[in-house]
Amino acid sequence: MVTNLKNEAKPGRGRPRSFDPETALAIGQQMFHAADYDAVGLSALTNALGVTPPSFYTAFGSKAAFFASVLERYASTELALAEILREGRRPEEALTDLFVRAARTYSQDPGRRGCLVLEAARGHGNSESAVLARRVAERRRAQVREFIARTHPRAAGLVTDYVSSVMSGLSGSAREGMSQARLVKVARAAGEGLARLLG
After folding, report:
1. Residues 148-152, mean pLDDT to the nearest whole number
2. C-alpha dist (Å) from residue 68 to 25, 37, 164
3. Same domain, 152 and 60
4. CATH number of the domain where residue 32 is located
């Protein structure tokens, strides 16, 4: 949970910048997406946010807690499943839409390729950042499974695994530099396979 901070000026020239938790999370999201969790140090974070380390800890508790909030923000704003997996949409339509949106989102910014959650979840063993990301990823898989089970309960498990694998593949390919045009073609091809799995 993020607490409010009093306005704090960043040392240096220019006008003081007021601290806003949502803005801080947006900045953190950009930083963690451009470089992995361990590569973003506390000093770099506090400098970018314009706060001192004690103020950072007061607001967020720890770097890990801040990262957890960043992951939640990312999951709720990028490829928001509540919007894509709407009640009444056919699974083939909704999930193909998810694939295509993912292909475009993962490749639109050369400095932030791939999925922040999925790439962090690939982290080393039981590292704190990987565990946090896996929790978010598993919750999103559960949302997909629940959506599919409404209309195709017997296929829900297999199709969820398929969706998870496609999304992971799109993210990894984007990180490797595959172009958006190629990724979208792959996403649409993956969508065509859904009808067969759903029976």
Report:
1. 97
2. 10, 11, 21
3. no
4. 1.10.10.60
Cβ-Cβ contacts under 8 Å for 145 (sequence gap 6 or more): 156, 157, 160
Same domain, yes or no: 104 and 185: yes
pTM for this predicted structure: 0.86
103 Cβ contact list (under 8 Å, min separation 6): 170, 174, 180, 183, 184, 186, 187
Report d(CA 198, CA 11) in Å as an integer. 58
Distance CA 125, CA 155 (A): 30
* Domain count of the fold of the chain: 2
Burial of 177 per CB tally in 10 Å (0-12, 13-18, 19+) = exposed
* Local confidence band at 18 (pLDDT 50, 70, 90 cut-offs): low
pLDDT > 90? residue 71 = yes
Identify whether residues 94 and 156 lie together within a single domain.
Answer: yes
